Amino acid sequence: MFFKKCFKHNINYRIAQSQKRSLKDFRVMGPRFEQTDFDLQPQPDPAIKLIANTPTRFSNQSIVSCNGGNGSLGHPKIYINLNKNEPVSCGYCMKSSKNMHSS
């Protein structure tokens, strides 16, 4: 009670702000929040699936370059070493490349 006597709430409000916080329930009601079935919501493919679907580029060289393919809108030009037997992806755009002659 000492707290209420010393610290009055703002005179522009009839009740204190802390008591007003419980009145937020009306904001999450209505037609926007009725459809909560996530099967009906749009579900974009995760990035890992999109990266797996990109085709692998094959090259005869052991070192290839990648610049994103968009000219000035691409990423910085990097060089990728293809001496391994597995596809190697670009660190910026995740395009994979593989040497044709690697066994």
Automatic annotation (TrEMBL):
Listed Pfam families: zf-CHCC
Matching InterPro entries: Znf_CHCC
GO annotations of cellular component type: mitochondrion
Gene3D superfamilies the UniProt entry points to: q5lls5 like domains (2.60.260.40)
Domain Zinc finger CHCC-type: 62-93
Protein name per its UniProtKB record: Zinc finger CHCC-type domain-containing protein
One GO BP annotation of this record: mitochondrial electron transport, NADH to ubiquinone
